Amino acid sequence: MATSVHIPVLLAIWIGIPTILLSFISFIIVIIPAIILFRRGYKPSGFFLFGNIILVLGFIIGILLGIFGYPAGLVMSVSVAATVEIIIFSLALSYRLKVMQKEKEEAQEKALVYLEQKVRERTKEINEKKSEIEQKNRDITDSIQYARRIQEALLAGPDFLSNQFKEHFVLYLPKDIVSGDFY
Known about the structure:
Blueprint: H1 2-39, H2 44-67, H3 72-154, H4 158-164
Helix pairs in contact: 1-2, 2-3
């Protein structure tokens, strides 16, 4: 009967020690960059660190339970630790999604401010061009009005033509402001 008690203990030690060593090595390999990132202010690495520490503690507790005569403790403690780790990682994922949403909103706000600035610049440019075109239009219209006054001064009026000719007619149909070469 004494040998049956020692077999689970020996089995737990035989399986547990390599498991602890591999877990410890992988823990160190993964944890060092996470610690560096956490110290630099990257908050999701804190979730990662906490979840992995919980998992390693679950392994250690399970191995200790196996050593002290409760071999099912390894499976149970690792299962509980893995469940807690999954919950922590889920919280980390929701935190990351929240951060990404905030970053997206900030980027959209920056883009909106940039676009509004561009619209103001373009509107100012268009208004300047519009003013320039309106000034050129006034200059051209003034020049045409001046040409009309010259044309009216040079062309014989109806009174002068009535005194000079008994029968006459004048076809004077300017298209807009000034007539062409024909009177």
